[in-house]
Each structure stands twice: as structure tokens, then as C-alpha cells.
Amino acid sequence: MSIIKQMQKNYKTVSIIGLAKNAGKTVTLNYLIDKAYEENITIGITSTGRDGENSDLVTNTEKPTIFVTEGVLVATAKQALLISEAKVEILETTDFNTPMGEVVLVRVKHSGNIQIAGPTNAKDIRIISDMLHDFGAEIVFVDGAIDRKASSSPIITDACIIATGAVLSRDMKKVIEKTAYTIECYQLKQVQDNIREKLIKGCSTCIIDDTGDIACLYVETGITASKVLSEHIDSKTQYVYVKGAITSILLNELSQNKHVKTFKLVIDDATKIFADSRAWNEAKKRGLKMETLNSISIIALTLNPVSPEGYYFDSAEFCEKMNYYIKGLNIIDVVAGGEIC
Question: For 99, how many CA atoms within 13 A lie in the half-sphere containing its CB?
Fold first, then answer.
């Protein structure tokens, strides 16, 4: 079964996130648009920011445009439509505003390049996605343009596709290491249901002991949370929950606790991890176990072996090595034809 058919069967809303600018996120989106057209699947597209312009507004480098085919549903800002080539039929206006004007829902009547500018608020993105479904979209793709990770949060989308590429480093080994770290974070196991229910109903920072009792800890910032938590952890502690950002400082502090091997750190989801890989690996080495309140499904990892700076990797070698180090995922080189490695 093709990737697009798998998505049609299992997910309604899918985010596309890039691990860096020019990692191949737009190329991935174009690949999915083509596959949906081939399979006669109606898709919707929106964005958590702006994408589809001819050149990167920050780096001033040329970038691929978003090419939409006839029948694709799009939620984008009015001004973005005015500078797009695709001919569209306006279906509905919304109350969601962006720097480029109000977001409108359209259906593509004649294929062409299009710019997408959507709302940045998670709740608004979810509403927009539902509206696209109401107009017939079988799958909605959310382009993670502002915060590359945030759009993959389970409160916004059902699953994600991660785009990585040569732009991360001239050293292929470093690209693989950075990608593998992100995948590992995203594949954290979801905490067992009875604990999850307690944490959802409980407080933002807390400890659960071996009797199931919850001790709420009131902290002002994530930085102070690590010390407060460490002071309250004892031999009876089974779970430590921190809502919000998970930093290197937090991991370092918890991993040095003498009870580190007997409790689990529970986080909201992988988009909240802002720790570097060194702190992450050191914490694991010391015995810190981590689970998540909300798991994230990864559908595929896409590769872009070409960097806008002019260097590139051998596609076959890049695919082979990424496939060796990252198991259990569909890995696709979207630049070299879209074949699964």
C-alpha cells in the first residue's frame, strides 16, 4: 500500500515538519500532492505560517514553490492568493486573521503555484482543518512553517512526517545523529492509561508515589522546577511530571538525583523537548527513563540530500545509512524520485 493510501486509511490531519530551513519540507509537500492526485484522493492544505514563496524571506535563497493540482482544498490568506498563480474558487471566509489578511478556504480550479499563509494558533489550525474536512478533504496536510515542531503536537494533528537533509550539516554523520535524536524523542512511549488520567486531571508539575498519591509542586518557571523536583523525589517516587518545556538543565538535575533509576519522567509530548542531545544521552546513561502524556505517530522520514549552500550527499549512501540507523520507519528520498529506501 502506498504512503498516501496508508494516510488516507489511518489519519485525518498530518503535519509536515522540517528539522531546519531548506530540509525539504516543501519538496515533501509537493511529493504528497502529486501522490494524492495519482490516487484520486482529495486533500486539504494549510500552514502554521507562510510558505510557498519563491525565495526564503530570511536567507534570501531560492526555494521550491508549492504546486497544487486541480481539486486540492487550501486554507490561506487573501493576500497570499493575490500573488499565487493557481486559479481558485472561494468556498468560505473565516474570522481568522494573519499578517497577510483573513484566511479563506478555496478549491483549486486550475493547477499552479500557490502561497499558503495560515493561522499560528493551535486551536485555530485545528478548526481550519475541520473546515477543510467538511468541504471534502480526506487528508489535511499542515505545513509547519513558523515553529517546525509545534504543528506535530497531538492537539493539532494526528500524525507527522519529518523532513531532514544535508542542510543540517556538511557531515552526513552529524545529519544522521541529529535526525536519529529527533526520531527517538518522537517515539517515546505513552505512559500507562491510569497514570495518564491522573496527570491530565492533576497539576502542571507533580510527583506520583508508589501508592498512587499525587503531590503538586508549585513552581514559577521551568528552570526552578528542576531543583524543586529534585528536592521532593525520594525512594517512593514512581512518576515525575513536568508540563511545558523540557530543558537540558532539567534533565541534568534529574539525572543526578540518587533515585534516578527508580522513577519515570513524564512529559506532555515530544514537541516540548528543548534539551540538546548531549544532555538527553547523559540522562539516559545515568538511568533516567522518560515517557509521554501524548504519543506522536511518525508516518515517514523524508530526505533531501541537497543543500542550498551548494554541497550535496550521494542519495543512495544517504538513504542506506539513514535506513541502517533508524529502524521501523518509511524513509523516502523525495528529491531522487520518492522511492522508499
Answer: 5
Single-letter code of the amino acid located at 19: L
Q: Give the helix/strand (H/E) hosting 312.
A: none
- DSSP code, position 189: P
Rg (CA), the chain: 21
Q: CA angle at residue 27 from 22 to 30, to 5 degrees?
A: 150
Average pLDDT over residues 16-31: 91
Mean pLDDT of 60-65: 65
The model's pLDDT over 270-280, given as tens digits with 9 standing for 90+, comes to 989 999 999 99
In this structure, the dihedral spanned by the alpha carbons of residues 278, 158, 300 and 163, taken in order and rounded to 10 degrees, is: -60
The β-bridge partners of 295 are none
User: Is 75 exposed, middle or buried (CB count within 10 Å of its CB: 0-12, 13-18, 19+)?
Assistant: buried
Q: How far is CA 91 from CA 6, 65, 75, 106, 111, in A?
A: 28, 23, 10, 5, 17
Residue 121: φ, ψ to 5°: -75, 135
| Distance between CA atoms of residues 47 and 30, nearest Å | 14
Instruction: Say how far residue 179 (Cα) sits from the centre of its chain.
Output: 13
> What distances in angstroms separate CA 256 from CA 184, 226, 259, 273, 321, one per listed residue?
22, 11, 8, 19, 34
Longest dimension (CA), the chain: 65
Q: What's the pLDDT at 54?
A: 53
As given in the structure block, the three cell numbers for residue 83 are 500573488
Q: For 158, list phi and psi in degrees, rounded to 5.
A: -85, -25
Give the model's pLDDT for residue 223. Answer: 61
Statement: the pTM of the whole predicted model exceeds 0.85: yes
pLDDT by residue (tens digit) across 194-210?
Answer: 999 999 887 888 999 99
- CA dist 131 → 19, 46, 123, 136 (Å): 28, 11, 13, 9
Here the cell at position 9 is: 486509511
**CA dist., res. 335 & res. 328, Å (int):** 21
Note the pLDDT of residue 51: 59
Task: Give the number of other Cβ atoms within 10 Å of residue 57's Cβ.
Answer: 8
Cell of 277: 542531545
